[in-house]
Amino acid sequence: MPNKIILASKSKVRKEILDRNNIESIVEPSNVDEDIVKESLIKEKASPELISKNLAELKANKVSMKKIDNIVLGADSVIDLEGEIISKPESREEAMKILKKLNGKSHFLISSVCISKNGSMIWNYTDKAKLTMKNLSDDELKDYLSKITDDVLYAYNVYQIESEGRNLFISIEGNEDTIMGLPVQKIKEYIGSLK
After folding, report:
1. How far apart are CA 193 and CA 195, in angstroms?
2. 76, 80, 127, 177: which is the annotated catalytic residue?
3. Is 19 a catalytic residue?
4. Which domain holds residue 76?
């Protein structure tokens, strides 16, 4: 098993998940322009799973080209609402629009992870969870948003499942680590298989 992996992400949550699972990691953000890649893939009618996988791979490959002989982990999560990809909000107004779209409906949260070495993917895994949001009034949505700090809002899309965000949902089917952006059990299995 490698001593340390490089996490090609500045996500504090992903780092915390690795730490909690005793996977030593060093953070080295990829700084990939996700929006350009996402728009291009959407134009090509790529599935949400493929978009998530491609972004995770791109991040891991980019960092692993610079970090020769290191194991690099890239990750990406997308929200799939009836085939529409919902991106992270860039303002509180946009967050409100997203919450209204998700309100009373089911959506999938798809998380992909990719491990690369020397610029090439050597392993990947994609998982998804189904979340069904309560039917909330505009006032309830505003109240929820008023409790969320900017760093949480812009880092987690519009809900942080491990805290206030859980209250938005009637049902959550799937792995919580997947919803938080890192299906860590599969990563542990793969890293454990490396000699």
Report:
1. 6
2. 76
3. no
4. 5-193
What is the tens place of the pLDDT at every residue in 126-150?
999 999 999 999 999 999 999 888 8
Which domain CATH number covers 167? 3.90.950.10
Q: Is the dihedral of CA 146, 149, 150, 152 positive or negative?
A: negative
pTM summary value: 0.90
Closest of 161, 180, 191, 165 to residue 111, by C-alpha: 180
**DSSP tally for the chain: helices H, then strands E:** 8, 7
Q: How many domains does the chain have?
A: 1
DSSP state of 168: G
38-47: long-range contacts (C-beta < 8 A, 24 or more apart)? 38/78, 38/85, 38/87, 42/85
Residues near 151 by Cβ (< 8 Å), separated by ≥ 6? none
Q: Token pair of 173, please? A: 């089917």
Is the model more confident about 90 or about 24? 24
Residues in CB range of 28: below 8 A, 6 or more apart: 6, 7, 8, 63, 67, 72
Q: Would you say how long the chain is, in residues?
A: 195
Locate tokens 């700090």: which residue? Answer: 149
**What phi and psi, each to the nearest 5 degrees, are found at residue 137?**
-75, 165
Task: Kindly report the number of other CB atoms within 10 A of residue 121's CB atom.
Answer: 18
Alpha helix segments (H runs only) across the chain? 12-20, 34-43, 48-66, 92-102, 138-146, 150-155, 176-179, 184-193
